[in-house]
């Protein structure tokens, strides 16, 4: 699969079928400045950069990286991208410590037989809902614990569509990650209430109708016994 534009100014530039099988999906927003949502596992930095450049963008304008949670398949390229382009790193405060200490368990680096170097987080999200204003566009970061204590989902309303970045709604829910089933139930209910038109998921790609988005979230609620 090649990287492509999902809707105007929103792209998928990395993921298991695009860059490396170990990568979570990597999304790019072009909102006057460039913003990445997640970064893959770390082995495909060059491919991700080339994919961004294929769309005619200069990675020097890659000002922000918003991380949905602290696992290596989503954060692995952060140190190199931050080093090259000075991008600011955003993550919820509850998932920041594993990045800053290089914790091999909570980053799941041990699962991938690799290490994550301690990396400074620039902005620690702290509220149930935080809004980043980029020009006239608002990006909403929702605290959605369950998979990890500091998991977030992100959405924006653009051109009449509500686009939700809901990474790892499939789990897994594991004690070693600090997962919590009750939190997961509350978080996924919050996401259902958003009534999103498009879901950009963390491993399984993009769902492009309200029904598909709803069915996807409901399927995992059922799997985990949340009704």
Helix content percent band: 10-25%
**Largest sheet, if any?**
7 strands, mixed
Tally of alpha and pi helices: 6
Side by side, the strands of the main sheet go 1-2-3-4-5-6-7
Q: State the secondary-structure class.
A: alpha/beta
Top-tier CATH class: Alpha Beta
Tell the overall outline: globular
Q: Give the radius of gyration.
A: 16 Å
CATH topology assignment: Metallo-beta-lactamase, Chain A
* pLDDT < 50 stretches: none
Order of helices and strands: EEEEHEHHEHEEEEEHEEH
Q: Which CATH architecture is right?
A: 4-Layer Sandwich
Mean pLDDT: 97
Q: Can you tell me about this structure?
A:
By secondary structure, this protein is an alpha/beta fold. It has one domain: Ribonuclease Z/Hydroxyacylglutathione hydrolase-like (Metallo-beta-lactamase, Chain A). Helix content is 25%, strand content 28%. It has six helices and 13 strands. The protein has helices at residues 45-54, 72-75, 78-85, 96-101, 181-194, 210-223, and strands at 4-7, 10-14, 26-30, 34-37, 62-66, 88-92, 123-125, 129-134, 137-143, 152-158, 161-166, 198-201, 206-207. A seven-stranded mixed β-sheet has the order 1-2-3-4-5-6-7, with helices on one face. It has a six-stranded mixed β-sheet with strand order 8-9-10-11-12-13. 46% of the residues are buried. The mean pLDDT is 97.
